[in-house]
Amino acid sequence: MHIRGDHAELVVGGRLDVRSAADARTALHAALDAGIGDLVLDLSELDSWDATGLGVIMGAHRRAGRCGRRLVLRRVPAQLQRLLVATRLHRILAIEGAVGVESLPRV
Fold first, then answer.
1. Non-local CB neighbours of 74 within 8 Å, separated by 6+ positions
2. Which terminus of the chain, N or C, has fewer Cβ atoms within 10 Å?
3. Whether residue 105 has pLDDT greater than 80
4. Are the C-beta atoms of 27 and 20 separated by less than 8 Å?
5. In 10 A of CB 88, how many CB atoms?
6. Spatial contact of 16 and 27, defined as CB atoms under 8 Å apart
7. What average pLDDT does the structure give for the chain?
């Protein structure tokens, strides 16, 4: 897993799973604590994830709210989009610029 960027936009790549969760959580929390406004996560380089990785994203979403910020997912891979719809998390998370985003139901 690799994360690069600053307190406004991060690119997450590789595997976001149980092995990388602690490092990812640390990087996301540091970016959220250091900035203002939206924190954009570009997921275009994300190869795979597991439930722990999804938990890291949800934890960052909650922390962003507590910091008065918003977590925005950008360029979400199709498989993750389907997972977000199946779990109804697409209703909670801000998602933009995803391939096929027009097919994501919004409530």
1. 40, 41, 42, 43, 44, 95, 96, 97, 98
2. C
3. no
4. no
5. 10
6. no
7. 88
